[in-house]
Design brief:
By secondary structure, this protein is mainly alpha-helical. The chain contains 13 helices and no strands. Helix 8 packs antiparallel against helix 9 and helix 10 runs antiparallel to helix 11. The two termini are about 20 Å apart.
Length: about 260
């Protein structure tokens, strides 16, 4: 955490120097960077404060990419605080500015965030529309497209379109094979394995869930490891193998206690 404090101190110094020198763009940029940095470490109050201050500053260019980014981060701060409708409005404002700037990459990112809020608000059809639009702008970028495709699959699943969901998850698996120990691959294996398990296709589900667990173990990513174990436990429970399911649940409980 000492490294984090050092970076924050430098950002605050940059902000102060830019303010004193009346360098407006540098000052706003420093506020944006402070907001985004506090977001990373879940200091939502600080993130909200610096982004709000930055957005209050006048800029000559109304279609400034920095303003669109700040609004997107500002929306993310609200979303992580559980203020979903407020987050949605902020993302919509960011989208308007990104469109004015003809910034397709930023538009795609904002559309992805809007779709995330729609998903949490059970607006799955709307989320699918937004994700499909986002893919048109940024689908060529591997890492980003894997996230969007996985989200598409989740939304299709909730609309009852299992075939479309499986197709999306399968595409993520195929495209992410080129990335060693990919988080996206682990998530897609969990999701597709879960679909197979729920429909009684236990033989095809098990290898996917086991591979997802192996990847999560190599990554030492606690949250993903818990998700993989929970998925495997659910699979065994649905198959009627209750002792194996219980063993996986106990592993999740044990690892959670050790991390506290």
């Amino acid at each position: 955490r000492s490294g984090d404090s050092s970076v924050i101190s430098e950002l605050h110094q940059t902000r102060s120097l830019a303010f004193l020198a009346e360098e407006q763009s540098a000052y706003v940029g420093a506020l944006k960077n402070l907001g985004s940095y506090y977001l990373i470490f879940e200091d939502l109050d600080s993130a909200d404060h610096f982004l709000r201050v930055g957005l209050a500053e006048p800029l000559e260019d109304t279609a400034c990419p920095a303003r669109a980014s700040m609004l997107m981060y500002y929306g993310l701060a609200a979303q992580r605080s559980g203020l979903l409708e407020r987050a949605y409005l902020r993302y919509q404002r960011a989208l308007v500015i990104a469109e004015l700037a003809q910034d397709s990459l930023r538009m795609a990112s904002v559309l992805l965030n809007l779709a995330n809020v729609d998903f949490y608000l059970d607006r799955y059809e709307k989320a699918i529309e937004l994700l499909q639009e986002a893919m048109e702008y940024r689908g060529h970028q591997l890492g980003w497209s894997l996230i969007a495709l996985n989200n598409l699959g989740a939304n299709y699943l909730y609309t009852g379109d299992t075939a479309a969901a499986e197709s999306s998850f399968q595409e993520v698996i195929e495209r992410s094979r080129s990335v060693p120990d990919s988080m996206a691959l682990s998530q897609a294996l969990i999701d597709l394995g879960g679909v197979h398990s729920m429909s009684g296709r236990f033989e095809s589900a098990l290898p996917m869930l086991e591979e997802a667990l192996e990847i999560a173990e190599r990554l030492s990513q606690g949250r993903r490891l818990a998700e993989a174990r929970n998925a495997l436990a659910t699979h065994f429970k649905q198959e009627g193998k209750y002792e194996l399911a219980l063993a996986q649940y106990q592993e999740v409980i044990q690892s959670t206690r050790e991390s506290e």
